[in-house]
Amino acid sequence: MKISLPGSACALALATALFSASMLGSAAAQTDDIGIVVYNAQHESLGVAWAEAFTKETGIPVTLRKGSDMEFANQIVQEGAASPADVFLTENSPAMSLVDGVGLFEPVAADTLAQVPENFRPSNGHWVGVAARSTVFAYDKTKLSEEKLPKSLLDLADPSWKGRWAASPAGADFQAIVSALLALKGEEATASWLAAMKENFTAYKGNSTAMKAVNAGEVEGAVIYNYYYFGDQAKTGENSNNVALHFFKNEDPGAFVSISGGGVLASSQHKENAQKFLKWLTGKGGQAILRDGDSFEYAVGNGEASNAALPALSGLQYPKVDPATLNSAKVTDLMTAAGLL
Q: Which of 133, 182, 151, 160 is nearest to 335 (CA)?
């Protein structure tokens, strides 16, 4: 049925439609004005949980773009002042150091830095820790007893470990661990350890795959991060039923706790809201998602509890490494020279 309107009614309808379209356009423009773009190299599910909860609480929209630590770090360096990103989130520190090294971060607000202990943020305050994960030696508990475990990460360079352990050398996780080794022991010791690693270890693509290989009896142990084990245990445990975790002690390089970072880009057009996002991540809202969720990463906010399944972070004997000193470029050179990349 076709309905015809009188001329005056038609004019009124047209005016109403134009007004509604104008209001919708204004609302969209307002969303563009306050919304932030986050380059998210963290786990996708964790990034989504953070973004959705932040938007629900503050009304500030968040657009997430997914990628890897070094992929985004190199992209940000290439984009420079033209980067569309407002915030960069990583799984590990070296990518943050790469961006910071060319001066592309806005200093983090003092009240946000105050929410995180000094050892979970760089000394220069250009970015801040938002979560953490511990290096572990995941081992086959049907083959190795406690007295047979390596006392140090450096022990895996011994010929007696040839063919017995694994890692995922191409991943940002393992390269962050090597970055800590470099910061703690120096270039010569790191190069020597990597050369021995080349002779002794078996390469797998991904930490989950390396842990699965331990579980299947292909190797006796693997250097990974803690959350792979706890995540699998929380599901079916099928890839970790034969696995136990060895936490290195005495501030050994193998006890390194890697910091997931968050930073506001100096080129951001929405710095105020980007800073609000970092403050929220490091505060009760963001840290509660770590505590109650299934990422099994450690909370780093002052006084904030981590997931109850995890050994207490305060009880781990990890080395104190200023994340601003972690050198991803040198690690890449050393690992390439050792034939690991």
A: 182
Closest C-alpha among 245, 290, 274 to residue 132:
290
What is the distance, to the nearest Å, from the Cα of residue 97 to the centroid of all Cα atoms in its chain? 13
Residue 226 lies in a domain: yes
Is there a domain that residue 40 lies in? yes
- Residue 31's pLDDT band (boundaries 50, 70, 90)? very low
Distance CA 282, CA 304 (A): 9
Distance CA 106, CA 172 (A): 24
Q: How many domains does the chain have?
A: 2
Round to whole Å and give the CA distance between 57 and 183.
40
Compute the residue count for the chain. Answer: 341
Find, among 297, 338, 296, 32, the residue nearest to 190 by Cα: 338
Residue of 21 and 271 predicted with greater confidence: 271
Using the predicted structure, report yes or no on whether residue 18 has a pLDDT greater than 60: no
Are 323 and 259 in contact, with CB atoms under 8 Å apart? yes
Mean of all residue pLDDT scores within the chain: 91
Same domain? For 161 and 191 the reply is yes
Q: What is the pLDDT at residue 17?
A: 41
Task: Give the C-alpha separation, 97 to 103, whole Å.
Answer: 10
CATH code of 170's domain: 3.40.190.10
pLDDT at 269 over 60: yes
Distance CA 174, CA 113 (A): 27
Angle, alpha carbons 139-142-172 (nearest 5°): 15
Beta pairing class for 62-66 and 36-40:
parallel
Distance CA 89, CA 262 (A): 5
- Model-level pTM greater than 0.70? yes
Amino acid at residue number 261 = G
> Is there a contact between 139 and 221 (Cβ–Cβ < 8 Å)?
yes
User: How many CB atoms within 10 Å of residue 201?
Assistant: 24
In a 13 Å sphere around the CA of 216, the CA atoms on its Cβ side amount to 9
**In contact, 248 and 137? CB cutoff 8 Å:** yes
Q: Rounded CA gap, 44 and 231, in Å?
A: 14
Q: Which residue has the tokens 């105020």?
A: 272
Cβ atoms < 10 Å from Cβ of 80: 13
